[in-house]
Amino acid sequence: MIDKRKLHISSVAIFAVLLLALVLPLGTSGRILAAVLLAPMAVFVYFFIKKRSILSLNASQVLLLMTAIALAYLMLYYLSGFYFGFYKNIYKLNVSNILRFSVPIAVIIVSTEVIRYVMVAQEDKIADVLCYLSCVIAEMLVCSTIPNISSFARFMDLVAMTLFPAIVSNFLYHYLSKRYGMLPNIVFRLLTTLYVYLIPISIGISDSLVSFIKVLLPIAIFLFIDMLYEKKKRYALAKKNRLGVPITVLAAAILISVAMLVSNQFYYGALVIATESMTGEIDKGDVIIFESYEEQIIIEGQVIVFEKNGSMIVHRVADIQIINGNTRYYTKGDANDALDAGYITDAEIVGLVNYKIPYIGFPTLWLRSLFKR
After folding, report:
1. DSSP for 97-143?
2. CATH code for residues 269-370
3. Model-level pTM?
4. pLDDT tens for each residue of 134-159
5. Helices (H), strands (E): how many in the chain?
6. What does the domain layout of the chain look like in residue ranges?
């Protein structure tokens, strides 16, 4: 009972510390606060809560594999610079920045993995859930801070580029920690996180594409390691759980597809309709799926996505004129009485609308309304 009491109190305390460090308006100082408070907590958990972990015989092999994957990730990332371009890193490599960024992040990563290693081995649901939530918050704290949110767009960036990858990656880290210990996670996370602050070159790849990779990579690692080392166990349990692997594959496919659509960095993208200007064909709260515009032929009546004054607009092409060799598109919302002001050119067209999914965008609109109060 005493051990369980320590376990639950420690779990709640760690969760509270990380949550406060994330939401308090401390900026990068929130990471320093979290590192200072987490380090002694990790020491306490490691030495004063009984460990019951029995690691797989493949633990050393998984450690080497995760190290190799991390190094391969870095190599491919910097090789992509030949396509996306190389730039000077905004984080200068000096003592001040190392103490401000690298050291706190390293302490947070190591501390959370020590805590995770002990907590997941306890077979206690409360501690396990709190530990997972704490680790997700720690991952977000490493990448971002909530007080920086000043608009709905910034909030959606946080969800898509920080929260979503943190949720997916921590499923992998929980899985690895329970079976193979904390070292594979520590090495992988340190290598794939700290390079941003230590290598003086950055790549001109978009944040949304990096976030997509951060969602895809943990899923791919999980499926690979599960196939490589858990194959016999999976076959032994096949009769009891025939749907386990198909469900995992289906969930991975759904997560990858959603990340690709939300990022708008691939051939297909998705947008939530926030106004009633297209009511009838496309209603407020619908989500439209569009294909990227790559100089396809556009005809009158085509519903397109275009960017005007920094906003993404979904309207129908009402008229097309060619003046001095330049094509001008005049657009109109189906529910509007008049044409949109001015015209748009090929350079402003983002995509062509192909499908819509009714109503599923209303939760997003509700969240957006909170930022307008």
Report:
1. HIIIIIHHHHHHHHHHHHHHHHHGGG--HHHHHHHHHHHHHHHHHHH
2. 2.10.109.10
3. 0.69
4. 999 999 888 765 545 555 556 666 66
5. 14, 8
6. 2-266, 269-370
